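Listing S7. Sequence submitted for prediction.
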Amino acid sequence: MRHFLSLSLCAFVLAACGQAPNGASEGVATDSDPLIGGHVASDSEYPAVVYLGGCTGVKVGPRQFLSAAHCFSTQTSMVMSSDNNAQNQVTLSITSIVQHPQYQNCTACAGDGSMNDFGLRPDVALITVLEQTPSVPVAVIDPNPVAVGSPVTLSGYGCENGVNQPSGPARLKVGDTHTVDPLR
């Protein structure tokens, strides 16, 4: 049985995006090349997963989205697209951003916004918007812990060609993997 990972784990996994095992370099040379360990999702595969102006979000309430804390701090609006066409964006007014307290108070972070800042701290935020988004369903969240070694499916936008590499238009990507012990 597959579990849908919470964004806090996804944020941890995405922080390592672009780094291949043993220092090897992997990348996607052109838009026509296959994704490494995944595929482009169809519009119907994960309808609660949305593009939030460069980051991935999941609709978790009528006006609430869960996303990575490093993507949101003081913004008053955000763009959202709920399909694989980055041109189909709507602007939403942000009414509140609640970052995980351990993200806000990281004492071991470089403080320069680099990937080193993300490490194991809970890089997660709850964003509330003014507008309703009825075309996007609310995700069903499984509150049970996911055991190390369990099969999971990751979904998200970005990191297609690796960190700091040019990318084409944002596309929702999906890949199957298993959970690992974050302390190893």
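Caption to Listing S7: primary sequence and predicted structure tokens for the chain studied. The chain has two helices and ten strands. The helical segments are 7-15, 101-104.
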